C-alpha cells in the first residue's frame, strides 16, 4: 500500500501502487461453457484459483450492452438525483462508503435485491422503467449462467444430483443480490505512480459471483502465494468467483478468491455482479459426497443467515471464515 500526504479528492481512501504491465495474470484459466470439457476445467480452476474467465456463455451482447448503457446514464445524473436513490442500507445507491464499518472506496454503486430471476418488487430503486427492464433482462440471463456453472461444478466434483449446488440459488427464499459499480477516473492521482482503491480486498461470502465489466481494467485477484495479479478486461466474457460458502461446501477443495479493484486515473470502469446465495436457513457444511473415509469437516456448521450476519458485521479485509474454522 502506498502512503502519501492526503489528497482532498481521495481523502480517507487507501492508495495502492498503480498496476504495471508485468502485473497481468498470464495464467488465468479460461473456460468455454459450451465445451464438453467445461465441468472438469471449472473444477480445476476453482481448486487452483477460485476464479476463472467464462466464454461462450450464451448471453447476447445486446443484453449486456443495454444494461451498461442504462447504468452509465444513471451514474451520469446530477448527484442530488442519485442521492435520492440512497442510502444503500440495505439496498439502493451508495457513494464511497462501503458498508457500515468504515470501508471506503473510489466508487459509486447500486445494491439491489433479486427475487427469483428479477429485481425484488420491494426494491424500488432504480425508478427508471428502461433501467429496470434492462436489469431484469440481464439478471434473468446471468442467473441462468450461474446455474449452468454450478451444475458443471457438481459434475466436475463428481457429485449428484446435478443440482446439488445450483438448487441453493434456485430454491424459494434464496438470497440473491445484484450490484452495479461505477469507478470514476481519479484524475487527481494521474502520473503519481499510485491509484485509489476502488473496492478494497475481500472475499465474497456467498456461493458464487458472476461479474461482467466494460473495457476498463482494474480487477485484481490474489494468488494462493499472496501475489496480486491484474485481470485483463474482456467486456464479452464473464468472470466467476468462488465465494466463502462454496469453499465450506467443498470442505476447502474450492478456494474463495480474495480480490479488489484499483481505480483508473483516466477511464471509468463499470461492472455488474450477480451474487448467488442460499436461503437464510440453509445449512452450510461440507457435502457428505465430498468427505472421504474418515475425513472431518474443516468448519463448524452454520446457516447462511448466521454467516451473512457475521460477514456484514466485519471489515472488508477480515478473514470472515476464521471464526468458523474447527
Automatic annotation (TrEMBL):
<keyword id="KW-0479">Metal-binding</keyword>
<dbReference type="InterPro" id="IPR027443">
    <property type="entry name" value="IPNS-like_sf"/>
</dbReference>
<dbReference type="GO" id="GO:0045543">
    <property type="term" value="F:gibberellin 2-beta-dioxygenase activity"/>
</dbReference>
<dbReference type="InterPro" id="IPR005123">
    <property type="entry name" value="Oxoglu/Fe-dep_dioxygenase_dom"/>
</dbReference>
<dbReference type="GO" id="GO:0046872">
    <property type="term" value="F:metal ion binding"/>
</dbReference>
<dbReference type="GO" id="GO:0009416">
    <property type="term" value="P:response to light stimulus"/>
</dbReference>
<feature type="domain" description="Fe2OG dioxygenase">
    <location>
        <begin position="173"/>
        <end position="278"/>
    </location>
</feature>
<dbReference type="InterPro" id="IPR050231">
    <property type="entry name" value="Iron_ascorbate_oxido_reductase"/>
</dbReference>
<dbReference type="Pfam" id="PF03171">
    <property type="entry name" value="2OG-FeII_Oxy"/>
</dbReference>
<comment type="similarity">
    <text>Belongs to the iron/ascorbate-dependent oxidoreductase family. GA2OX subfamily.</text>
</comment>
<dbReference type="InterPro" id="IPR044861">
    <property type="entry name" value="IPNS-like_FE2OG_OXY"/>
</dbReference>
<dbReference type="InterPro" id="IPR026992">
    <property type="entry name" value="DIOX_N"/>
</dbReference>
<keyword id="KW-0223">Dioxygenase</keyword>
<keyword id="KW-0560">Oxidoreductase</keyword>
<dbReference type="Pfam" id="PF14226">
    <property type="entry name" value="DIOX_N"/>
</dbReference>
<dbReference type="GO" id="GO:0045487">
    <property type="term" value="P:gibberellin catabolic process"/>
</dbReference>
<protein>
    <recommendedName>
        <fullName>gibberellin 2beta-dioxygenase</fullName>
        <ecNumber>1.14.11.13</ecNumber>
    </recommendedName>
</protein>
<keyword id="KW-0408">Iron</keyword>
